[in-house]
Amino acid sequence: MGIYTGAGGVDAIVGEAQLRRMIVETVEHNGIPKRMLVLPPDHTRLNSYAGEITAIIWELYSHRCEIDIMPALGTHAPMGEHELRMMFGDAIPLERFFVHDWRNDVRTLGVVSSKYMQELSGGKLDCEVKIEVNKRLFDDYDLILSIGQVVPHEVVGLANYTKNLMVGVGGSDIINKSHFLGAVSNMERIMGRPDTPVRRLFNYGVEKYLKDLPIVFMQTVMAKDQSSGKMVMRGFYAGTGDEVFLAAAKLSVEANFVLLDKPLKKVVVYLDPEEFKSTWLGNKAIYRTRMAIADGGELVILAPGLKECGEDRENDRLIRKYGYHGTPYTLKMVNENQELRDSLGAAAHLIHGSSEGRFRIVYCPGPNFSESEVKSIGFEYGDLAAMLKKYPVDKLRDGFNTVDGEEIFFISNPALGLWALRSNFF
Questions:
Q1: What confidence score (pLDDT) does residue 425 get?
Q2: Which domains are present in the chain?
């Protein structure tokens, strides 16, 4: 166990030639495999560089071994041809991509005891959890590459590593209950931290039930370069075990956190329509910023691609029915409604996507999501055209701007980091 190869730093840029060398070192660490399964994230993680890494792997090895690719969808909708080509390029045949069905296409490997869940949750959860992963992982592969970006995450603290397996290609029980574990553990105490109750749950599942599989992790740390305005790779770490994740996590804290000395009164967040089509994903604008927004402040979310609430039909229905009304209301609804108890991941999402009554949230959708839909799920409505005229995203810079004499804080992509008060975080 350990790091096969790695490089990075808060000011470093990992170029393609260096990246290719590290990919070769990783894939060929134990010899060239005959059959390889690649588990990259889906198009909602475009900035992870996992698409480009997967394309390089295909270019280098498709003529030397059999390669299957299964995007780690979690609960997200399957990728269509447009999304696949946008993320992975045109060279990989579409038949080499497989869809993860989190509800049906999984194998139950074991059960986490209710005693351990009580320990992890501080007594707030008393339930068993099934460890479930996609059956394809057991299809006699010589190498399984789990690829993804380490970046702040609302459920587990920092995305990727064991989360890519337990959630990305996991089953409904582990997904739902892990998300609820994160919600009851207090998101503000989890975000940006490598050691959390949810991370311990994921690590337990992988270490106990997947230890015999040939899984190797490729972890990226991405950030926007201030001089060029482009996304760059600050770090790449590959290998097995905690060391790979912890190396990337340490760099992510330095590269992806924006720590502020005073609360923000007004935040404007833009959601790229290619990446954010649902409130399930778009609410990153809320939970990645709410640790920085002042009580009584305002969050304006510019969401031209918004068309739905949940990436999954049932989650969409539950979000529309119960809405984003904060922790006390959501927990009350969980206690009173079996359908929410059966979908604790959706319940957790409703908690994450609320300001807890501390600040206003103004959602500004495009033509595929109506004013009445916005209001029905608990947000205020803003006219997108008027807001884009007032806040022209192509002219604003990330960070503080002055618009018509008003100071605003602009974020061009909430998936890239975490914004928090320095005094509250450390």
A1: 64
A2: 2-257 (3.40.50.11440), 261-425 (3.90.226.30)
